[in-house]
């Protein structure tokens, strides 16, 4: 039986997280491969608003999810906003994304979240298959308004 562990990530996890962030960016942008950027991983892990969990498979960090704890204006409660979720291709089909979402649901129960919500890229077909199995579609539609795409 394979060992899976889901845990909150901290600054000490930046060296293992950096290559996953680079792979995720490559998968979404389909451009030249990005180099792992440990400084950027440290910034994400130290962000005052974002929180990061990781999925370890057989002792190796192979996935991550970035989420936020936000006010939910309609109910007056809090809500979880899953912003990014990624599992390395070599570790897929082992239930890691499902386990990270289950972890977030449990965390949401402890925090009193009204719901956990997320959006995904329209072309993310394998992930959408899982989401359709475990959640109901939202009545929301996603849009992007570019502000500064220079990367500065």
Automatic annotation (TrEMBL):
InterPro entries: Acyl_CoA_acyltransferase, Bact_Acetyltransf, GNAT_dom
Organism: Stappia indica
Name this protein carries in UniProt: Acetyltransferase (GNAT) family protein
UniProt keyword Chaperone present: no
Record-annotated N-acetyltransferase domain positions: 4-152
GO molecular function annotations of the record: acyltransferase activity, transferring groups other than amino-acyl groups
Alphabetized CDD domains for the sequence: NAT_SF
Keywords attached to this entry: Acyltransferase, Transferase
Lineage: Bacteria, Pseudomonadati, Pseudomonadota, Alphaproteobacteria, Hyphomicrobiales
